[in-house]
Write a structure and sequence with these properties.
The complex is a heterodimer of chains A (285) and B (267).
Chain A (H helix, E strand, L loop, with lengths): L1 H38 L1 H6 L3 E2 L6 E2 L2 H32 L4 H15 L2 H18 L9 H25 L3 H9 L4 H30 L2 H6 L17 H8 L5 H34 L1
Antiparallel strand pairs in A: 1-2
Chain B lengths: L1 H10 L6 E13 L2 E12 L3 E5 L6 H8 L10 E8 L2 E2 L5 H7 E4 L11 H5 L1 H5 L6 H14 L3 H4 L12 H13 L5 E5 L7 H14 L4 E5 L3 H7 L2 E6 L2 E7 H6 L4 H7 L5
Parallel strand pairs in B: 3-8, 3-9, 6-7, 7-8
Antiparallel strand pairs in B: 1-2, 1-4, 4-5, 9-10
The chains are: A mainly alpha (285), B alpha/beta (267).
């Protein structure tokens, strides 16, 4: 009897979570209905127009979509030269040693810093630097946001990569060593190819994090509604425009913001799904 | 010294050249605890020498010291000399040693991301040895023929090795070691993960390989040692208890511990 009640509770909790998720999707879809109805899905997605003037309101997501994709992919590229060495260090070179666990906990600490703190650091430290180096006119912009985003996603990319690197069977590495390979050659010809898709999945999931990051980016990107033309350019992202404008939005504008939210949800869901899929296949091997 | 004298006794009938010599070799993983204790032995060229003994007796460590694979454990300490063709491997560059001493492991470990063809040539690739396409084809064919795998895989050389059976994978791994034409082949219980039929095939193949290569094989399987080896070592608690030709060790062992082990009283 007790067992039955417990099982019932478990089922109930799971169903509730599923319902919550469904309700979220439902409210996003129903909230964005007006905007998609007015402009059509593709026109809304590919238009960079954002004009809230009453009477000739015109909204499109393209400037934000490009801003989000630019900053996230740039962040991903910038984080590789840091996260990959950390992953190799903790997952292969110093595997299961004290120094590796110290380093990986410090890197994991990066993941625990609230994003507003990253934003503040970027605003007061990185922006002036970017300005004085002449990389950006006002210090804000795509590159500034990407650098901060890159630091924020290092722990995600490196801990997942390290996990897959450390999972490469010892016997394969020994096989390569026994043929006269150096450590670097073992990494190049055995560790990377075998752990490859897992490492890739780690980066895909890190990208998913970067896409949705709001606070730090909002503080650093400049929040101008335009498609960024250069790295020093200011821009806006999907998450930032929602954070900045939802307070005073109503009617069609609110619906457009929710529509952007739905698009962001779809993009991150697809990215995360792909990452998990690759990872599952790699773990299954 | 007694063991060296023994060696001379057993080699009187066959004036074969000794290719590998252990001189007072001791190995410890942790300070003060010896996994291998002052081993002296000389291995004859183009012969099969079996190393037997219960788990933890140091036989794998001794085998791995020949190509210095035991150094993958960071704290290891090795004393004595291991002479391969008269040169101390402990003084040589480890990568060079490993090209000269091929190794085969307990479980087949072909590289899963490489084709059969690439697997055979992996040693060349890893050592940056440049060979022409024609030479590559020749090396692959010769090595696969050496291990009796050529006819079974010649039509699927560019496929990955994962569809092969365990026995075939292990023969591929032996081909990979043989491809570099090493001076000695070190085998660490190469058939322990295989079924009896695959084991038999590999044993027959080793008897063929012996014509060209010197083989040092660690085995748990005493009947395997009896079937294929010319000489046998019995190790116990890090010590080389007995080393002589296989027939003598099985029929007339000198040491009581050897006799007890071989008659199945422990181990």
């Amino acid at each position: 009897m007790k067992d039955k009640i417990f099982r019932g509770l478990l089922y109930g909790a799971c169903v509730l979570v599923l319902l919550l998720c469904a309700a979220m999707v439902y409210s996003l879809v129903s909230g964005s209905w007006q905007a998609f109805g007015q402009f059509g899905f593709f026109r809304f997605l590919f238009s960079a127009e954002w004009d809230p003037t009453a009477g000739k309101e015109e909204y499109g997501a393209w400037a934000f979509v490009t801003g989000t994709l630019y900053t996230s992919f740039l962040a991903l590229v910038l984080c590789i030269p840091f996260s990959l060495p950390v992953a190799l260090f903790t997952g292969e070179y110093f595997r299961k040693t004290r120094i590796a666990s110290v380093i990986s906990s410090i890197v994991d600490l990066l993941a625990g810093i609230p994003s507003i703190v990253y934003g503040l650091w970027g605003f007061y430290t990185l922006c002036p630097l970017m300005k004085s180096w002449g990389l950006s006119d006002q210090g804000f912009g795509v590159l500034t946001s990407s650098i901060v985003l890159a630091i924020m996603i290092i722990p995600y990319a490196s801990s997942l990569s390290a996990e897959f690197i450390s999972m490469v069977p010892n016997e394969l590495k020994e096989g390569a060593y026994s043929l006269g390979a150096t450590r670097l050659e073992v990494i190049r010809t055995v560790v990377f190819p075998v752990a490859g898709s897992g490492i890739f999945a780690g980066y895909v999931l890190a990208l998913g994090r970067a896409l949705g990051e709001t606070m730090a980016v909002t503080m650093l990107i400049g929040n101008t509604i335009q498609i960024p033309r250069s790295l020093g350019d200011t821009g806006n992202t999907m998450a930032s425009v929602i954070a900045n404008q939802f307070g005073e939005a109503s009617g069609l504008k609110l619906s457009s913001l929710i529509a952007i939210g739905l698009l962001l949800f779809i993009i991150t869901a697809v990215i995360n799904f792909l990452g998990k899929l690759i990872m599952k296949r790699q773990r299954g091997k | 010294m007694t063991i060296m004298e023994n060696m001379q006794d057993t080699t009187q009938g066959s004036p074969k050249h000794c290719i590998l010599e252990f001189k007072d070799v001791s190995i410890s993983y942790t300070e003060g605890k010896w996994a291998v204790k002052s081993v002296n032995a000389a291995i004859k060229e183009r012969s099969i020498t079996a190393i037997m003994g219960p788990s933890g007796c140091g036989k794998s460590t001794l085998l791995r010291s020949v190509n210095r694979m035991h150094e993958l454990y960071p704290e290891i300490k090795t004393t004595g000399q291991i002479l391969l063709d008269g040169k101390d491997v402990l003084q040589m560059n480890a990568m060079e040693v490993r090209r000269k001493a091929g190794m085969v492991f307990q479980r087949p470990n072909p590289f899963p991301t490489m084709s059969i063809y690439e697997n055979v040539l992996a040693g060349y690739k890893l050592n940056g040895i440049k060979v022409s396409k024609a030479q590559k084809d020749e090396i692959v064919q010769k090595s696969l023929q050496d291990v009796g795998l050529w006819d079974e895989v010649k039509d699927s050389l560019m496929k990955r090795g994962s569809f092969l059976s365990g026995g075939q994978q292990q023969r591929l791994c032996i081909a990979r070691a043989v491809a570099l034409r090493p001076r000695i082949l070190l085998m660490d219980e190469p058939t322990s993960a295989l079924d009896p039929i695959a084991t038999r095939k590999i044993e027959d193949m080793l008897l063929e390989l012996k014509k060209e290569f010197t083989i040092l094989i660690v085995t748990h399987n005493m009947s395997q040692a009896a079937r294929i080896s010319d000489d046998s070592m019995f190790m116990y608690l890090g010590e080389l208890v007995e080393f002589s030709d296989t027939q003598t060790i099985f029929t007339n062992p000198r040491d009581k511990r050897t006799e007890e082990y071989l008659s199945g009283q422990f181990g």
